Amino acid sequence: MAKKRPQTKAKRPQLDDAEVPVVGAREPCPCGSGRRYKACHGRTAAQATTALVQRPFEGLPGECDWVALRELVPAATVGLTLRDGLPEGVPSVTLATVLPMAWPALRRDDGSVLLGLQNGTASGDISRDLADTLARALTADPGTPVQGRRAPADGPRLQDLLAPEGAFEPEVHSGFEFWVPDPENATPDVSASLERANAAAIPTVRLQGVDAAYWCETPDKNHLRWVMPHDEERLLDALARLHAAGRSSLGEGTRLVGSFRAHGLTVPVWDLPSEITAQDIEKPAAEFAERLAEALATDAPLTHDERRARGGLTNRQVTLS
User: What whole-number distance in Å separates Cα of residue 102 and Cα of residue 170?
Assistant: First the structure.
């Protein structure tokens, strides 16, 4: 009998990473490796999608206020300006801290768009997720909410969709009536969601004399939470210098108690007596901003007392994101 020739398989052409299309996780990878997509290029795609972006709002006007509205402020809205202008049939685009039933976005009956900031993110880049939601909201049918999804890894970010110039001026609200033009005629689900949200909202005021500082009222004491754009290490050094010198308070009865870390920025927090209002703290906050600017400009090594103060501030730092 004649010997059978060993059969050889023709090699499939290998594709460049950028040319590999997306397929089902259990299907063969189109690159020709012979492995399933999820164990080959699908793994790379998943990692690219979930990689954490430390400062997702960097480069946007009002980065500090974006962080505040995402993490600290219950009810606020901001008008957004699109880089390419408003599409036909969309009279306005408004960013909102949160929407009814935690919808990621809502296209109202009049065609206007509300984009929710405080909702779950499917990837490691909030900016990309929000941009994907906004793009879909602009073409959604009027009167419908937009559901969340994982944005494509190569999709646009907010920095690509929003105009880079212009002010970012949040309007803080005492409740969530901005959800609906006519609360009296809202659906039962929306009315119930509105009632629950209003009951949980903490009274909050944005200071006018300094950027991204928010006073809030709680049952036991009030607080000032101030999102700052400075490099974290340099800012902690400056705060430590002021704290060690007894110059970190905002007046009698106030105390710098620590800070939050959120989306790559640092948020110092002060405890305030319950009788101190937002208006009362405007002048002390402006004066503190001047002291902080001086401390930030100092390059001298920290003293023993300043290092100890810095250690205390670092130990009382809480990461929100």
Answer: 20
